[in-house]
């Protein structure tokens, strides 16, 4: 019996004024997306309409999520709206799950026009948590400012959206599902794919899996402890580290993706990954790692809980790329880091870009790639984490680096604080300022609101953060983040100083950076202006 074509329906709506995406897409409290009529539909329509109609018709898009609450319901709406708006094919992860690096990988592999990722990164999940929608473009990377502005402008004037409300898909069934739509010549196709396979194939082409497997299973077996924090990375950790590379099954914990991440924020740091920290301090494991909800952020620990600052991690990986077959064969084109990231990476004789970090295998930060990189270095050098880090410091010097996060701030108070601080550091007299803290004297060399000009297409990303650089190369960076969901604004303060003397490489980070932090608090008045006594998180 023939089934009737699925109707395409046009629904009248009204615009929302608060749908301007940030660097991490649009993040709000889950209740906003779930409970505010047409809020989700309006934003999805704005994303789809931002793509030129000629490019959109019949194109392929990728869809995935970190598994947080409301993801399945949102994916169903995205599928219904993609079909109604002329998208020809959607590639979706099994059960709706795809890590952000995997989405980036698949976009490039199948030459998709882009991908929609449902994630609020390290923010809490569950009905009372946060939800986010991120659009990655055809190169696999996050939307540039021009695309985000286009999405926002569409959202401001939106009067209707198109949807196929009767279209239903089964996210649990691998394979192709086809649907005939009214007034469409070609069927709409949905492909449910293994969440891990394409990404795993890519990693096999980059790393020496045999070398890593020998490290994890050989006579001098390295015992590892990996915490997926009940986010999307569980299936990847199980499949790649355990099944492929031979790590015992009990090496991986919290590998079942949960809608509320087990009731804790999926943030891989010393504050929230405390069970990993405690396990590593016991001395039974030589390597530990944790991942955030969507798999782009990570934390590395060595034996006895030795903490690897993310700034050191990327610099050490850069210094040891010769251990990786892919880079031995293809060489290195250059390194990229975000402006706020430590300048430790700048100490190599390579092209250095101030931009979103990642490898040329994808256009996103990648936690599991970084873990495999560390295991490759350990296999090649036959050293533990702390020894590798200390030898790196001895050779290149140590960048002491920390970040203070003030979360849940009143958005207006945060905005005016940043506006007034920019006025202070933009004053010509500020560049001749000297700050005395104890026996330290810091002289300002440069201060600005950083903007990035893409060397490829010339696009400009403005207002990337306020930075103050001192004559001894120490620096402070202030950024207001859009990652706070509906929980208010977040201001992050970064402090960094460089130490060449090996005799001074084992000092406490907070002690070393105390004078810089004191300057930051003084010139920003953040405690007085926000009513806070200190940051929520120090990393």
How would you describe this structure to a colleague?
The protein is of the alpha+beta class. It folds into three domains: 9-194, Alpha-D-Glucose-1,6-Bisphosphate, subunit A, domain 3 (Alpha-D-Glucose-1,6-Bisphosphate, Chain A, domain 3); 198-396, 3-Layer(aba) Sandwich (Alpha-D-Glucose-1,6-Bisphosphate, Chain A, domain 3); 398-538, Alpha-D-phosphohexomutase, C-terminal domain (TATA-Binding Protein). Helix content is 33%, strand content 24%. It has 17 helices and 25 strands. The chain has a seven-stranded mixed β-sheet with strand order 2-6-5-3-4-9-8, with helices on both faces. Strands 18-19-22-23-24-17-25 form a seven-stranded antiparallel β-sheet. α2 (39-49) crosses α4, α2 (39-49) packs across α6 and α8 (209-217) packs across α13 (367-381). The chain is globular.
Summarize the model shown:
This protein has 539 residues and is of the alpha+beta class.
Keyword list:
single chain; Alpha-D-Glucose-1,6-Bisphosphate, Chain A, domain 3; TATA-Binding Protein; 3 domains; seven-stranded mixed beta sheet
In whole angstroms, how far apart are the ends?
62 Å
Main beta sheet strand tally, sense and closure: 7 strands, mixed
The secondary-structure class comes to: alpha+beta
DSSP E strands, number: 25
Task: Name the CATH homologous superfamily of the largest domain.
Answer: Alpha-D-Glucose-1,6-Bisphosphate, subunit A, domain 3
Total of domains: 3
**Tally the helices: what do you get?**
17
The appropriate CATH architecture of the largest domain is: 3-Layer(aba) Sandwich
Q: Which fold name is given in CATH as the topology of the largest domain?
A: Alpha-D-Glucose-1,6-Bisphosphate, Chain A, domain 3
